[in-house]
């Protein structure tokens, strides 16, 4: 039996060698985790993508900065009931005409009877508050809960810069404490190289998520900071699951000489890939529900900030746990130590076997005829028959 088809092209055999290996589609390989996706072997590509993401994020943070909410910067927030005819541009024009300068931001929140238009501006004096309130009442005739046109339908809240500074300081402290505790847990939970890879992946998630917020211009609020801490925990959980599988697949691999640490880690990444996708999709579904119901229908702006950062962070975390953390771990392992020596030994053994007994489409022909088969005559050879006896 030969391992070539009639055209001479090689055919991949199954493990027993008795027949061709079954062909799996993309979705089947994804679902079964057969290790068919070269994640680790193509890690230079994923490193390049990660470098691009990090560069864009850092440049955006350095150049554009963040759109800090009023809770961080201080200022005045004006909220007026919205009607179907009102637009944010109309409200902005009335504000600018009344005070002589434009607000920091104007946005529509909610829908239907719960819809409102919120303006955020620098801290307004009492006289300025009266001017803008009068202008908004004359322009849009807002109605209170009883249905009467009233100035009370417009709510104005002031937040001092001191309060904003305290909120910023507490948010940074909370973020720092979380990162430190996470690093301690990772160092205890995993062996050294896995800890380094997980921490690198954690900072990758943090920088890219913050960079997307800066690039798109999402407003950073205390709810967004809370959401950021939440998705960092989710990303850490995803790393734990993937690294557990890597640890299981690579247990005892240094005592064998058939597969390398990188190949076993790649198999683990493939086996957890579908799980990571499923977990992320299931996690995003309630977030989408939060955005639709809480934000568009009920007009709860705080939940929007929480939902946005969670959605962005979960997608980034799922990507990094498989396509960044695992390749980083393999690169660290193969840089020094017993894994590096074992990988070289496996590759050398394969090279030696390949030289002595290459497995190719024509290997069976190179081995010569099987018993009972006639060999083809060589060019220029005499026809087969009895050997002529006589003097030479």
Put simply, the count of helices is: 13
Mean pLDDT: 76
How large, in whole angstroms, is the Cα Rg?
33 Å
- Distance between the first and last residues' Cα: 42 Å
Low-confidence stretches: 1-19, 355-381, 384-392
Describe the biggest sheet? 4 strands, antiparallel
Helix content: 55-70%
CATH-scheme architecture of the largest domain: Up-down Bundle
Helix- and strand-based class? alpha+beta
Number of strands: 6
Order of helices and strands: HHEHEHEEHEHHEHHHHHH
Oligomer: single chain
Q: What amount of the residues lies in strands?
A: 5-15%
Note the overall shape. Answer: elongated
Please write the CATH class name of the largest domain.
Mainly Alpha
Assign the CATH topology of the largest domain: Multidrug efflux transporter AcrB transmembrane fold
CATH homologous superfamily assignment of the largest domain: Multidrug efflux transporter AcrB transmembrane domain
Number of domains: 2
Neighbour order of strands in the largest sheet = 3-4-2-5
Keywords for this structure?
elongated; 392 residues; SecD_SecF_C; two-stranded parallel sheet; 13 helices; Multidrug efflux transporter AcrB transmembrane fold; transmembrane helix; single chain; 2 domains; alpha+beta; Alpha-Beta Plaits
Description:
With 392 residues, the protein is α+β, with helices and mostly antiparallel strands. The protein has 2 domains: 37-67 and 163-341, Multidrug efflux transporter AcrB transmembrane fold (Up-down Bundle); 75-158, Alpha-Beta Plaits, CATH 3.30.70. Helices cover 60% and strands 7% of the residues. The protein is built from 13 helices and 6 strands. The strands form 2 sheets. Strands 3-4-2-5 form a 4-stranded antiparallel sheet. A two-stranded parallel sheet has the order 1-6. Strand 3 and strand 4 form a beta hairpin. The longest helix is centred in the C-terminal third of the chain and has 37 residues, at 261-297. 29% of the residues are buried.
């Amino acid at each position: 039996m030969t391992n070539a088809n009639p055209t001479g092209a090689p055919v991949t055999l199954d493990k027993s060698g008795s027949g061709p290996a079954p062909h799996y589609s993309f979705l089947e390989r994804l679902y079964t985790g057969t290790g068919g996706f070269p994640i680790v072997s193509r890690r230079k590509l994923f490193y390049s993508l990660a470098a691009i993401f990090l560069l864009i994020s850092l440049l955006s943070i350095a150049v554009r900065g963040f759109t800090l909410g009023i809770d961080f910067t201080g200022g005045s927030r004006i909220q007026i009931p919205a009607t179907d005819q009102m637009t944010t541009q109309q409200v902005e024009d009335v504000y600018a005409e009344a005070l002589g300068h434009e607000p920091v931001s104007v946005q529509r929140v909610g829908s239907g009877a719960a819809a409102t238009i919120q303006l955020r501006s620098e801290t307004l004096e009492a006289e300025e508050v009266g001017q803008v309130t009068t202008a908004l009442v004359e322009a849009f005739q807002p109605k209170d809960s009883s249905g009467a046109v009233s100035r009370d339908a417009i709510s104005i809240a002031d937040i001092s810069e001191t309060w904003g500074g305290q909120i910023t300081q507490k948010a940074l402290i909370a973020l720092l404490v979380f990162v430190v505790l996470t690093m301690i847990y990772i160092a205890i939970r995993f062996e050294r190289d896995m800890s380094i890879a997980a921490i690198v992946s954690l900072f990758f998630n943090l920088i890219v998520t913050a960079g997307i917020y800066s690039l798109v211009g999402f407003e950073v609020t205390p709810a967004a900071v809370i959401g950021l801490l939440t998705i960092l925990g989710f990303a850490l959980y995803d790393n734990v699951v993937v690294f557990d599988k890597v640890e299981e697949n690579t247990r005892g691999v240094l005592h064998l000489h058939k597969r390398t640490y990188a190949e076993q880690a790649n198999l683990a990444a493939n086996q957890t890939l579908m799980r990571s996708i499923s977990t992320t999709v299931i996690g995003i579904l309630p977030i989408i529900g939060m955005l639709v119901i809480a934000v568009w229908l009920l007009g709860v702006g705080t939940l929007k900030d929480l939902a946005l950062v969670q959605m962005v962070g979960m997608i980034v975390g799922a990507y990094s746990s498989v396509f960044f953390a695992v390749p980083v771990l393999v690169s660290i392992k193969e840089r020094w130590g017993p894994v590096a020596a074992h990988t070289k030994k496996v590759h050398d053994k394969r090279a030696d076997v390949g030289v002595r007994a290459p497995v190719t489409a024509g290997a069976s022909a190179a081995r010569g005829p099987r018993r009972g088969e006639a060999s083809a005559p060589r060019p220029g050879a005499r026809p087969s028959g009895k050997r002529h006896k006589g003097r030479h």
